[in-house]
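Researcher: Re-running this chain for the archive, since the previous output was lost when a drive failed. Same request as before.
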Amino acid sequence: MEITPEILRKMQLLELKILVEVKRVCDKHNIAFILIGGSLIGAIRHKGFIPWDDDIDVGMTRDNYDKFCKIAPSELSNEFFLQTPSTDPQYFDYCLARVQLNGTKVFTRYEPANMKHEGFRIDILPYDNIPNSFLRGYLYHGIFNIFIRVCVLRNGYHLYPQNFIMRLIIYLGFVLCLPISTKKLKSILENYYKKYEKLNSSHVVLLRGRWGFKKERHLRSTISKIIYIPFEDTLMPVPEDYHLFLSEQYGDYLTPPPVNSRGLHHTLNIDFGIYA
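Model: Regenerated structure tokens:
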């Protein structure tokens, strides 16, 4: 299916349907979240989706994330599915949950073919505590990102674009981890990202973020103080100081990129299924 602007818009509105359901569950159980990434830029710059964006990203502190993952399977309506390594044996991204819309399919560049659960989705990402020392935090974040990429590569996923040195390190890690069982790798990874969960840190980081430690590291207060602003036909939570948050990550986020840099980030093909 050619993804025309009209088809992309229909996809966006179905993703909005998922976001509204996530907000309903979070409001019911006092779980705080914020729009992040391109979704936050869209809320500020376009009062909704960036016109050429194909996904929604939501951020939560680790405690809120754990709470959401615990209650969502029973609280989400039957239209939706919470995808984590605990709910889907084919899913191996241990630091990223997804809420999917049943009865739809989206085919991406990076995931294995023929996954059972591959519907339209929004990503739920946790912010974790990190040492207050920039250097210690940088090393912690870097080791995690190598290790998580080794894990997903081992389970049939494709790597996001990486420079040559990083790809070499990841493949070396892949070889070194071959004697370790998948179950053991999962246990090591889970213990690693919980390393600083009890630390009273001034900063948090999106371990699974794509923009590197410096841009994914934020003051805790930046993500904990929330306001509500228009997003499409509803109101969604965003950081109160969204200007600082986005400037740290993207620089001049108010100026759209050149036309030749706009396009779908992830999607190759889609199937609206029962929503066609």
